[in-house]
Each structure stands twice: as structure tokens, then as C-alpha cells.
Amino acid sequence: MKDTYKTITKASPEVLFKDRNSKFFGYAFPVKTEEEINAHLEELKNKHHKARHWCYAWQLGKEEIQYRANDDGEPSNSAGMPIYGQIQSFEVTNVLIVVVRYFGGVKLGVGGLINAYKTAAQMALEESRIVTRTIDEIFEIKFDYPEMNTVMRIIKENNLNVIDQKLELDCRIRISVRKKEAESIFQKFDTTYKIEIKRLED
Predict the structure, then answer these.
(1) What region does 168 belong to: left with phi over 0, alpha with psi -120 to 50, or beta?
(2) Is the CB of residue 97 less than 8 Å from the CB of residue 28?
(3) How far apart are CA 125 and CA 119, in angstroms?
(4) Which residues contact 29 (CB under 8 A, 6 or more apart)?
(5) Under 8 Å CB-to-CB from 98, ≥6 apart: which residues?
(6) Mind listing the pLDDT tens digit for each residue in 34-91?
(7) Predicted local confidence at residue 63, as pLDDT
(8) CA atoms within 13 A on the CB side of 151
């Protein structure tokens, strides 16, 4: 079972690729929602308001993947898909890559455009810090105060990550568990007397 994914930790520095007077500025951003994607695009359109094209591709999701590639007025499949190809090549997700083009007066042809957009996207990803993260499941454990020691022992023995807790007369702890270990951890709590466990949506 694959339970890891790669992403970038922060926005890349601006990169620049030039070909026959055309300038291609490349950017990579970590994103989790389409709202974030739209905000970054708006920001770049304001920053580069004199540019001719703002082409981009993005991919969201860890297991169920969504993606989009946009040529923004360039010939079909000459910009968005070459950018998306680099997202696939670097095997990253939850990422947006934008390449902003200033036209230099000389047409590059479809082959030239594909190369330019691909290269600018590649340069942006090469400048990014790529990390591997685990796909986790979130569980909520409910129990009464007297069961505290039992719960804490299971958490400690299995080195589990506590993300939230409320410890009063009726206690609640939320833990995140790596996907491939999730079923066995669930069973450990589920089969323990007086302890209730349920899965939460990530």
C-alpha cells in the first residue's frame, strides 16, 4: 500500500527562461484548495499585468487526484500540458505551477513553446524544496477518566501522534496514524474495554 506523497513546502523563488526575446517567468506554489490557486493566479496577474499569457497547471489530492492544465490563449497543449508534465515528472501533488510569458516579437512555434513552458516549470520545481509526507488517517478516541492510563499506554507503545486532546471526566483524544498502520491501531483501541474509537475525515 502506497501511503506517502511528495509536495513542496513553500513557494519557489521566481525563475526566468528566455527564448528569442520572449521571457517566461516560472513559479511553484504549495496549494490545498482551488481558492488558494485562484488567489495565486490573481496575484501574478496583478504583478505581471503587462504580460501576454499566464499559463498554469495544478494537481490536488493524495490518493484521489484532481488536476487542470490551462494554455491561456497559447496554441492547444503547448503550455498547460508541458507544465503539468513536470508536475508528473517530479511526482509532486498539492502544487500549482504558473509560467508567465512576455512576448518578445518573434513567434517560437509550437515546439519552441512546449520547450519554454516545460523548462520554466522544471526550473521552478528544481528551486523548490520537495518533501515526502505520509498519508495519515485521523481517529478520535473517547473514554472516561479512569481509562486514561490504558489509552496513554497504547499511544506510547505505538509512538502515536496526538493532534488534539481534551482530558476531563469524559476524555477525548485525536490521533493521526500512518495509513498502512491504521487498521491495526484501530483494532487495538476498538477491542479495549470501555474505549470508543471512530475515524474522522481528514
Answers:
(1) beta
(2) yes
(3) 10
(4) 8, 11, 12, 36, 40, 95, 96, 97, 98
(5) 26, 27, 29, 40, 41, 44, 54, 55, 56
(6) 999 999 999 999 999 999 999 999 999 998 899 999 999 999 999 999 999 999 999 9
(7) 87
(8) 25
How many whole angstroms separate alpha carbon 52 and alpha carbon 105?
11
- Nearest partner of 138 among 177, 166, 106, judged by Cα: 177
Q: Taking the CA atoms of the chain, what radius of gyration do you get in angstroms?
A: 23
- Using a pLDDT cut of 90, give the percent of the chain over it: 94
- Tell me the three state secondary structure of residue 48: coil
Amino acid at 124: A
Indicate if the alpha-carbon torsion angle 118, 120, 124, 127 is positive or negative: positive
Q: Which three cell numbers stand for residue 23?
A: 521571457
For each of the domains in the chain, give its residue range(s) and CATH number, in order of start: 4-132 (3.30.230.30), 136-200 (3.30.70.240)
Global pTM value: 0.82
Whole-angstrom CA distances from 176 to 87, 134, 184 are 27, 10, 13
The C-alpha cell 487495538 sits at 188
Q: Is there a contact between 176 and 138 (Cβ–Cβ < 8 Å)?
A: yes
d(CA 104, CA 118): 18
